[in-house]
Prior knowledge:
Low-confidence stretches: 9-22
Number of strands: 7
Strand order of the largest sheet: 1-2-3-4
Bound molecules: calcium ion
CATH class of the largest domain: Mainly Beta
Number of domains: 2
Distance between the termini: 73 Å
Number of helices: 5
Largest sheet: 4 strands, antiparallel
CATH superfamily of the largest domain: YVTN repeat-like/Quinoprotein amine dehydrogenase
Helix content: 25-40%
Order of helices and strands: HEEEEEEEHHHH
CATH topology of the largest domain: Methylamine Dehydrogenase, Chain H
Amino acid sequence: MKQLSTTLLILAILTTISTTAIALPEGAIARLGKGEISSGDRAVQFSPDGKLLAVATSIGIYLYDAQTLNEVAFLETFAWMYSVTFNHDGTLLASGSSDGTVLLWDMGPYSGEIIYGNVNNDGEVTPADAMLVMRHVVGELPLDSDQRERGDVTNDGFLSSLDAALILQKVTGLISVFPVDEVQ
Ligand SMILES: [Ca+2]
Ligand SMILES: [Ca+2]
């Protein structure tokens, strides 16, 4: 019986320790970052519009939605990231690292703004996006609601071969704007 109570006591202590480790300091609302967050006053930065939070760590840069605190992206690097800073309009993020390099990251794909026609959300409109729409239209490829919204360049609420055709026309320069961009 003594042995059992000792075990229980150890369990209780372990529980206390792990709870303490998870608990947040007073006034903090979330614990962010994996890897080791760099020291220095430029390791954590908000984007100029306040929507993104960039965290420089030992294994890369984490981008968080500053509102929901959900992880938006992890920019993997092969060097310890010391510092991050956004440019004036938040379209670029510059990072300084332990290997002495400065990297510039395109923040376009993470801005939350919809680029119509960019179905695969890789930052640009290409024939690959038109192909995704076509494969969806013929029932070959399911697309999620965000992908369908970005692909609906005619703004009629659904995807059709016309959306794919317009995406190709934009890529080849036959049209300069999509119907959906004109009504925005
Ligand atoms: Ca694309
Ligand atoms: Ca459409």
